[in-house]
Amino acid sequence: MKKQSFLLVDTNSIALRELTDILKYIGCRDIQKAQSTSDAWTLLRTREFGCVICAWDMPEMTGLALLRIARGEDRFFNLPFFLTDAAFTKVKVVQAGQSGVTGLLVCPFDVNNIKDKITALAELPKDEIPPDTKKCLESGMELIENQQYEKALAVFENLTKQTENAEYYYNIGYIKTAQEKYGDAIAAFRKATQLDRLYAKAYEAMGRAYQHLGNSEEAKKFLQKAADIYMSKDNVENAEEILNEILQISPDTINVYNSLGVLYRKKGDLDRALNNYLKALKVHPNESHIHYNIGRLYLEMKAPAEAKNHFSKALQLEPDFKEAREVLNALELVTA
């Protein structure tokens, strides 16, 4: 097995010791441990690791949040990153997959399962750019910067013949957009997103290309996709910019107001969050999930009576709304 460095992250010292023993048993020796995600993030930025194995449930910041932050950095985009948990629900599996997880490890750990995953990981070819390819890439980017689009296009089209890479297709799309060939640009951006489903910039650029073609519905769809990815990575500034751009296309887009509510709630701006949720509710007064979001927000604002009203309304609209029922029952117990 090739030598590889591991960063293990867990508040549970017993789980850390168990995982360390398993890795040593299968031949891994370079192991660093962290008992908080903030310490793990500091270590990631100060030394190089070949793999991260992090517990999902962590006190100050979840393992999922650490994964999303890491994937937002170019240098960690392909870093093998595993999440551990005692029981992965369908929701957790989907969230982890959307965030770019390498794999999931169930506690208590199975030695053979971990050995298979780590062995397969060690056999993966390194994603290194050959010197000649790197030189071509730099040349192509310089040509774009100098607006020599035809020459740049030839460079990137030649690179795609050597290997398919999302960044190459994104740059082709960028060139086609600059040439106002929006249909060709969309095809290139779509290819980029097929190769990298979390490539927010490509979805963003595709949305704008559709808007140039006058197709507002497709523009909104892909801009919203980009905003969702940015939000999942806690890149709230880019998400906010795109969501406001969608509002300029269509001021009555319910998903945007709801997304802005979520965004401002994450930022701690509860008044702006409430304002956007209420705008979403005005557009669609019978949407149960908006009432639920408003109820949660009122709880954070220490207004339980208003929260109960909205949770109750959510249940009137959707009687099987499990989460709304659970919160409402808890509130009624507290205020009884």
Could you characterize the architecture of this molecule?
The mean pLDDT is 88. The longest helix is centred in the middle third of the chain and has 17 residues, at 216-232. The chain has helices at residues 13-25, 37-46, 63-71, 90-98, 111-122, 131-145, 149-162, 166-178, 182-195, 200-212, 216-232, 236-249, 254-267, 270-283, 288-300, 304-317, 322-335; strands at residues 6-9, 31-34, 51-55, 81-85, 103-106. It has a 5-stranded parallel sheet with strand order 2-1-3-4-5, with helices on both faces. Helices cover 66% and strands 7% of the residues. It is an alpha/beta fold and 336 residues long. Strand 1, helix 1 (13-25) and strand 2 form a beta-alpha-beta unit. The chain folds into 3 domains: 6-122, Response regulator (Rossmann fold, 3-Layer(aba) Sandwich), CATH 3.40.50.2300; 128-249, Tetratricopeptide repeat domain (Serine Threonine Protein Phosphatase 5, Tetratricopeptide repeat), CATH 1.25.40.10; 252-336, Tetratricopeptide repeat domain (Serine Threonine Protein Phosphatase 5, Tetratricopeptide repeat). Helix 6 runs antiparallel to helix 7 and helix 7 (149-162) runs antiparallel to helix 8.
Q: SSE layout and pairings?
A:
Blueprint: E1 6-9, H1 13-25, E2 31-34, H2 37-46, E3 51-55, H3 63-71, E4 81-85, H4 90-98, E5 103-106, H5 111-122, H6 131-145, H7 149-162, H8 166-178, H9 182-195, H10 200-212, H11 216-232, H12 236-249, H13 254-267, H14 270-283, H15 288-300, H16 304-317, H17 322-335
Parallel strand pairs: 1-2, 1-3, 3-4, 4-5
